[in-house]
Amino acid sequence: MIPTLLPTYSRAPMSFVKGEGAWLVEADGRRFLDLGAGIAVNALGHAHPALVAALTAQAGALWHTSNLYQIPKQQELADKLTTHSFADTVFFTNSGTEACELAVKMARKYWYDKGQPEKTDILTFSGSFHGRSSAGIAAAGSEKMTKGFGPLLPGFVHLEFGDHEALTAAITETTGAILIEPVQGEGGIRPVPDQCLKGLRDLCDEHGLLLIFDEVQCGVGRTGKLFAHEWAGIAPDIMMVAKGIGGGFPIGAVLATEEAASGMTLGTHGSTYGGNPLGCAVGCAVLDHVADPAFLDGVNRKAGLLRQKLEGLVASHPDIFESVRGSGLMLGVKCKASNADIVQAGYDQQVLTVPAADNVIRLLPPLTIDESEIAEAVERLDAAARQLSAA
Length: 391
What we know:
Layout: E1 16-20, E2 23-26, E3 31-34, H1 37-40, H2 49-61, H3 72-83, E4 89-93, H4 96-113, E5 121-125, H5 134-140, H6 143-146, E6 156-159, H7 164-170, E7 175-180, E8 183-184, E9 190-191, H8 194-207, E10 210-214, E11 238-241, E12 252-256, H9 277-290, H10 293-316, E13 321-327, E14 330-335, H11 339-348, E15 351-352, E16 354-356, E17 360-363, H12 371-390
Parallel strand pairs: 3-15, 5-6, 5-7, 7-10, 10-11
Antiparallel strand pairs: 1-2, 2-3, 4-12, 8-9, 11-12, 13-14, 14-17, 16-17
């Protein structure tokens, strides 16, 4: 008999009932150090006072009206995002998946309105993850994501990650855009080097293509800049964000230049819940903290400490770990032992990590984690490695 919850998840046998900063409390009272942050969502940790206050105040005033009417908090959040980014305009969604759908629509509508409707192809890369909608799985293209869900949405050209020659050769008269994560998350914490991001910008400019960045996982302070592409000193035409922008409340967004968004006119897209007062109130509070240069300096300082300690961990357990990679507080440890076994051993030591492709464990702690908690986290990972070595 099928469970009342559709069985599409392999859930760990833990039920958390309370969160405090970088900690989660299990129903039985055990305290877990959270290096997953809800898969890079809880940017300010669990139950951050500013987010609790923002949500409580908004909930006591107004929950939802729909986009039939003006939503002051939505306008406020859009103004903050455009002030702190390359973008001229923002559309709010409920998730990163929905942001992907709009980014694809926006790119194709742009070329249609330019009188070049044949330019529908979007170049994407192996190891990518752009959500689980029809457009998202078609963009990623992996068998794991697409098997059994055909026919797939056409118009995506899949290229090997890092193959520059193949990328250049793939551009044809039907190419309209390039879509890439500045740091792949699900693909195993694989950063695109700054020079390659600059090269992508140059390539798009040379061929008149739109550049779309998926910063759903790597954005909102995760790498030590507000958005990961800022390290390369360039900007996209369209960008997807979600996860961290709501600090745990479901909200996403598409940011775009005026030119790239020019085809999205009255009635071309919509959302009942997208940008509702609750989500935008929390988003404003998140951005007030994360966009502060002093806060980002702290992220970079803590990221350096965590990376240094992880390098030591790898050196201490060459039978378990291989290397550290990533950017900011979006780090991955490439494993020699099974990453699933390491995640499980972490559960035994009451530390939470997230598995990814390429036999990697992801460390995506709250950006508010402190130095003592970083030390404690690595001590628990060390204990997990010793446990596996002794098994």
